[in-house]
Amino acid sequence: MSFTHSEFVTLLPSFASEIHPSVQSRTKRSIDILGAGVGLTLTALVLIPIAVAIYISDPGPIFYSQERCGFRGQTFRIWKFRSMVVNAEKLQHQVQNQAQGYIFKNNCDPRITRVGRFLRRTSLDELPQFWNVLRGEMSLVGTRPPTLNEVSRYKAHHWQRLEVKPGITGEWQANGRSTVTDFEEIVKLDLRYQERWSIAYDLGLIFKTIQVVLNRRGAC
Predict the structure, then answer these.
(1) Number of structural domains in the chain
(2) b/e string for 116-140 if b means 16 or more Cβ within 10 A?
């Protein structure tokens, strides 16, 4: 089931007036801007070879975009390098969901192209998200940004995970990545991040994520 933006807005609950300190932190925002600058520079350097490889592997758009939910349900369009075949969303019903709860995941999804599998293993597919970080829609570190359909099924305790900005990385990516397939466990990790948040904690998760990516753990 899909929703228009206006229909989705009616589903949003009333959030607490107090805003999580990470959202208002100038230091965190400065780190995001600096990180986004570095990330977009890297993206520019690898854009042409990645674009050529994607097109040769499966002719079609180079980028993939999808509407996601950010801080307190605010919607934005996330960007990635396309790692699946064209019209992959229409084929989702043919793929087994290995996750439990309000997420869809299959670590060895057959819709992923050969080049796309490499992009995912190395997390290169996520480089365009630095544009979302620069725009302030995402942060370098936060929670996993859910789809509108996922959020439309949320129960009361799930909404708390949207009290911070979504991140390129976070507790789930650094401490579980694809090995965590239970949505309730992801929620626990997201809430743990909110409780433990500090600038030092963010930096620790960033470095831990780099280690995970370099070791290629948690990816098919």
Answers:
(1) 1
(2) bbbbbeebbbbbbbbbbbbeebbbb
